Amino acid sequence: MYKLLKKCGSIRRGEFITPHGVVQTPVFMNVGTLAAIKGAVSTVDLKKIGCQIELSNTYHLSLRPGDEVIRELGGLHKFMNWDRPILTDSGGFQVFSLADIRKIKEEGVYFNSHIDGSKIFMGPEESMRIQSNLGSTVAMAFDECVKNPSPKDYVENSVKRTTRWLKRCKVEIDRLNSMPDTINKKQMLFGINQGGVYDDIRIEHAKIISEMDLDGYAIGGLAVGETHQEMYRILERVIPYLPQNKPIYLMGVGTPANILEAVERGVDFFDCVLPARNGRHSHVFTSEGEINLLNAKYKLDDSPIEHECNCPTCKNYSRAYIRHLFKAKEMLAMRLCVLHNLYFYNNLMGEIRDAIDGDYFPSYKREKLDKWNNKS
């Protein structure tokens, strides 16, 4: 259940109430694709750095270790020792990323495993069954994500099929939730709005899926080829047509600036691999912008990544030390930077919520963007 606590223009401040706890929104979901954050960060660490909700990948977990294995072990929460909410994506994005080795048909998608080349089929029912086996808090509907730009006629047909798939997802998750041996009988379903960069297709699709009274609504198919301005335009056009009493999730986005812009337009949920991926490659986020710790100027820098940061990394280690670890190819370097970056994102969301609560979000956003844009 989503509880809207405050609304200022399009900006929303809410609570998402789930069987695994209450999530304060806007929120950033920390991405643990294979039930782990890349960079040697544990679920114990996630609690220490303020993670409210974790995201895992349906497709990848169905291959390794297998959703049936996770089910046998009590579900994903027990498997990875995480008692807070988990959202699992549907496998739909893998349909997009595996474009060269897939065949999309009405029943679902045929493709080959990226691990061993074995043949795989996934459709709406299969995605729901895998996610039910995982026992996640929120299951995402199976959809097709198209590259931007794509021909309008293709996008129209794709969106119609995604709608038909969504109806099948809803029927199947309702069936699975009614089964006596289902791990999470209160598993929620989020639908996904698609339509590329075409306003009319996006709006019509938003109207159709809004009538289905789902637990939440995502905006997918962005940050896949279009400009930031195009993405912001789509958000402005589409969000007014999605239910305002349900959470709104912008999938796979993004940079800190993207998040501020999207919050201003009414988005509640975010996820992105950027903080962990950048951290593993020595790039860390600060209030003044992103820096690369491999730069020579940090060789003798005994200051933390950020002086005012309370993450475990900044409270204990210097830029010079972390740079040394990267140069020495010690995995601790990645861990320390991923910890810092995820803390930065989680803390950013906390500051955003405080700014909305305190009625100063516009000035907060302006100050942040000015700092990041003016960084030399």
From TrEMBL:
It catalyses: 7-aminomethyl-7-carbaguanine + guanosine(34) in tRNA = 7-aminomethyl-7-carbaguanosine(34) in tRNA + guanine. One of its GO terms (molecular function) is glycosyltransferase activity. Pfam families: TGT. The keyword tRNA processing applies. Its cofactor is Zn(2+). It is an enzyme of class 2 (transferase). InterPro entries: ArchSynthase1/Queuine_TRR, TGT, TGT-like_sf, tRNA_ribo_trans-like. The active site is at residues 89, 271. Substrate binds at residues 89-93, 143, 194, 221. Zn(2+) binds at residues 309, 311, 314, 340. The keyword Nucleus does not apply. Gene3D superfamilies: Queuine tRNA-ribosyltransferase-like (3.20.20.105). Residues 252-258, 276-280 are annotated as: RNA binding. It comes from the Bacteria. Residues 11-373 form the tRNA-guanine(15) transglycosylase-like domain. Its EC number is 2.4.2.29. Binds 1 zinc ion per subunit. Keywords: Glycosyltransferase, Metal-binding, Queuosine biosynthesis, Transferase, tRNA processing, Zinc. Pathway: tRNA modification; tRNA-queuosine biosynthesis. Homodimer. Within each dimer, one monomer is responsible for RNA recognition and catalysis, while the other monomer binds to the replacement base PreQ1. Catalyzes the base-exchange of a guanine (G) residue with the queuine precursor 7-aminomethyl-7-deazaguanine (PreQ1) at position 34 (anticodon wobble position) in tRNAs with GU(N) anticodons (tRNA-Asp, -Asn, -His and -Tyr). Catalysis occurs through a double-displacement mechanism. The nucleophile active site attacks the C1' of nucleotide 34 to detach the guanine base from the RNA, forming a covalent enzyme-RNA intermediate. The proton acceptor active site deprotonates the incoming PreQ1, allowing a nucleophilic attack on the C1' of the ribose to form the product. NCBIfam families: Q_tRNA_tgt, tgt_general. This is Queuine tRNA-ribosyltransferase. The lineage of its organism: Bacteria, Bacillati, Bacillota, Clostridia, Eubacteriales. The gene is tgt.
